[in-house]
Design goal:
The protein has 113 residues and is of the alpha/beta class. Helix content is 42%, strand content 18%. It is built from 5 helices and 5 strands, in the order H-E-H-E-E-E-H-E-H-H. The protein has a 5-stranded mixed beta sheet with strand order 2-3-4-1-5. It is globular.
Length: 113
């Protein structure tokens, strides 16, 4: 999703609300990770841990994608996931995903007049 947003020239970042993905990514992609002050960057995408979300919010991204992980995970951030702000964000993500899907279909049809 983030790479699609970047392809549409939006500035987007990723925030891991759990504890597993970023750690494993750093182990697997050591050479391709760029360490920054409050985040890491991979494939030109800024990646934040949940503890650094304040810094992500201050950067002025057009979109911040929060990855809550598996709802059955014992570390699942249920309170954050169910907050009214998070619900508003899900609506915005759904709207954006619908736009991306329309753009992809339009591009495959040769464009819309």
């Amino acid at each position: 999703m983030i790479l699609n947003l970047k392809a549409l020239e939006y500035d987007a970042a990723y925030v891991e609300m759990g504890q597993q993905y970023l750690k494993k990514l750093q182990e697997l992609e050591k050479e391709d990770i760029v360490k920054k002050e409050h985040c890491i960057s991979f494939m030109d995408v800024d990646l934040y841990s949940s503890g650094q979300i304040v810094y992500a919010n201050r950067q002025g991204y057009d979109y911040i994608i929060k990855d809550y992980g598996n709802i059955r995970d014992p570390d699942f951030e249920q309170i954050s996931f169910l907050s009214p702000l998070a619900m508003a964000e899900w609506i915005e993500i759904y709207r954006c995903a619908a736009t991306l899907q329309f753009t992809a279909v339009s591009a495959s049809d040769g464009g819309v007049d």
